[in-house]
Design brief:
- The chain is of the alpha+beta class.
- It folds into three domains: 2-150, Sandwich (Immunoglobulin-like); 158-272, Immunoglobulin-like; 312-378, no CATH class.
- Helices cover 18% and strands 41% of the residues.
- It has helices spanning 2-15, 116-124, 294-302, 323-326, 331-340, 351-360, 367-378; strands spanning 17-22, 26-32, 36-38, 43-51, 57-64, 70-83, 86-97, 101-105, 107-114, 136-140, 145-150, 158-168, 172-174, 179-189, 205-218, 221-233, 238-240, 244-249, 254-259, 263-268.
Length: 380
């Protein structure tokens, strides 16, 4: 029976690595949720300081010392008045060890003592700021926490519990449209990582933007949310290859792999004659899921003309003759000419207003004015 109780007590004590100490002013306790951890594994550190001397007001300050061996952030500081002149302050930190071996975690602990009169003066001035109170400060030497940090048996891209999902807007697009893919990355763990679902694809223009960026510190690690948005433009079919990310879960003590889905996107060619058709304009695209971001602007601005640039020009370039520009009957004809025949004339400033007229019927009355200015620029 005694042996069983002894084993149970040992196990309970092993769950928390604790340092107890006291001074004439206060007692304090430094605890860690784990003593043996892996590199980049999250652990919670708590420091509880309780006032012992009962004649004065007391304030506790704790600052972790900077080190390349770990990353530490303050999660919470809670001050409680247990009784008159008996304050208790609880500091909670999130720590990630970054180096294997024995890692020391050091703190600067300061106790500030103030009389009732000093505190009363601050209240009378309608300010409750500890920094304004005249105090007697005492630096207390804390024994550092000693952590035993192990290296993971396998190299990984992420440490934590994460998921990566994706959604393809359409598996078939016209050559003047962008193929839009959104990846949602969520989980809890270490916040420094390199996740790029799509990097380079041959003969494909890639525009990307992170439209959701959220990191919040928790005792289990950073609660992380990302949305990666991609707009892909090509004259050929697009293949987005699957990618794998190797991960380790400290909670489940296992390695796992996040794998993205492979996508094959059919790109339908476009007859150039459609571009100067007065009726059958390409349908405007619904890109609301990308939000009011730079990516939305890029897609709206470029989707109408970037891919058209891949078509070989059917015009012969004559520097001093611009009759085709003068005879352009609408914004679409003019935009096509600028993209394919006059792209070396640095007239890209007119792409956006013409694109707005074509796809959004915005400021259509300005078409003649824009054409007149283009002719003026060409004659320079």
């Amino acid at each position: 029976m005694k042996n069983a109780l002894g084993k149970t007590l040992f196990l309970l004590l092993s769950l928390t690595f604790t340092l107890f100490a006291k001074s004439d002013l206060a007692t304090y306790q430094l605890t860690s949720s784990k003593e043996n951890v892996y590199v980049k594994e999250a652990l919670e550190i708590k420091f509880v300081a309780t006032q012992k001397e009962r004649l004065h007001n007391m304030f506790f300050f704790l600052e972790p010392k900077k080190s390349d061996n770990y990353k530490i952030v303050l999660l919470n500081k809670e001050a409680n008045e247990l009784a008159h002149h008996k304050k208790e302050t609880i500091f909670t930190f999130l720590l990630f060890p970054l180096k294997e071996g024995s890692v020391e975690v050091d703190f600067n602990f300061t106790i500030k003592v103030a009389s009732d009169e000093a505190v009363a003066q601050v209240y009378q001035g309608s300010r409750d700021n500890v920094k304004w109170i005249e105090t007697i400060n005492t630096q207390v030497d804390l024994q550092p926490l000693i952590l035993k940090v192990k290296k993971l048996k396998e190299d990984v891209d992420l440490v934590g519990d994460f998921t990566l999902t994706s959604k393809l807007q359409s598996d078939s697009v016209n050559s003047y449209e962008s193929a839009n893919v959104t990846y949602s990355f969520n989980g809890v763990g270490y916040d420094v990582f390199n996740v790029e679902p799509i990097t380079k694809i041959k003969d494909v223009e890639i525009f990307s933007e992170i439209t959701k960026h959220y990191d919040k510190e928790t005792p289990a690690g950073y609660d992380i949310h990302r949305e990666f948005n991609y707009a892909l433009i090509s004259k050929n079919d697009i293949v987005v290859k699957a990618k794998e990310f190797k991960c380790y879960s400290p909670i489940h003590d296992k390695f796992y792999t996040m794998k993205t889905q492979e996508y094959v996107i059919k790109v339908k060619g476009m007859d150039k004659s459609n571009l100067i058709d007065k009726v059958n304009y390409p349908e405007s695209q619904d890109l609301s899921q990308l939000g009011k971001t730079i990516l939305t602007y890029l897609i709206l601005f470029f989707s109408g003309f970037l891919t058209a640039k891949y078509f070989p020009s059917s015009f012969s370039l004559k520097k001093k003759q611009y009759s085709d520009v003068r005879e352009a009957k609408n914004a679409k004809e003019l935009l096509f000419l600028l993209m394919n025949k006059y792209d070396v004339y640095k007239l890209r400033v007119y792409y956006e207003p013409l694109n707005d007229i074509v796809y959004h019927d915005a400021n259509a009355r300005n078409f003649k004015k824009i054409k007149k200015q283009i002719l003026k620029d060409l004659d320079k």
